[in-house]
Structure formats: structure tokens, C-alpha cells
């Protein structure tokens, strides 16, 4: 009986052992947190889609002002991009909506790159919209 030295035996095992760890990690299932996050994101998008206002073609200018004013109050900030994305308006049309909201007294004047102030509460805005 021939005995191999221990070092040679360990090297033989290392060579014979397949490198499956890297492949196993690559094929590992996503963590449950990632699945939950993706599911939550999909639900939030579906809810936003359901809550989204009608397209601008079906809204009168007064209705567009009322809905966009409520949007700003809900978001807590005033941004042209919010109106552009939500109502699919170009920049000029969105700026005209902002001008209308300024004339109505909901938002403050343009301050050169700084965020406009929201001057009314939701209750005040809703009563103003109901009165007009």
C-alpha cells in the first residue's frame, strides 16, 4: 500500500472540487425584501394611475387650475415638472397654469430659481374653488 503525503492529498481534493459557489450566488433567488419592495412599487403605481386626474383635453382651464392647485397642496411643493408630467403639458402651458394659480392667490410669485410659496391651506383653496 502506497501512502500519499498529506499535502498532495489536499491539492488533489482542491482540484477535484468544482467551483460552484460563484454559480450558486449568481442564481440565488432575490431576497424577500426586494420582492416586497417591487410589489409595493407596483401597487403604488397602480394607485397613482387610478387616482390620476383626467387628461388635459377633457378639463376646462378652471378645472385644470383647481386640480393642479390641489396637486401642489397634496405634494407640499410647487414645480412646473409636476404639472408637465401629471397632465402631459409642455413647458409653456404648465407655466400658464402656474400664472393662473398665482393670480388666484394659491402660490406666491416666481423668485428666480427658488421654490414658490404655497399661500393657502387646502380648506381655503377648496372653498375658493367652490366659490368660482
CATH architectural name of the domain at 57-131 = Orthogonal Bundle
Oligomerization status of the protein chains = single chain
The residue ranges in which pLDDT falls below 50 over 5 or more consecutive positions are none
Major sheet size, sense and barrel closure: none
- Determine the fraction of residues in helical runs and give it as a percent range: 55-70%
The first-to-last residue Cα distance is 104 Å
Mean pLDDT: 78
Beta-strand share of residues: under 5%
| Secondary structure tally, helices | 7
The H-and-E topology, N to C, reads as HHHHHHH
CATH superfamily of the domain at 57-131: Winged helix-like DNA-binding domain superfamily/Winged helix DNA-binding domain
CATH overall fold name of the domain at 57-131? Arc Repressor Mutant, subunit A
Q: Total strand count, please?
A: 0
Shape: elongated
**In angstroms, what is the radius of gyration?**
30 Å
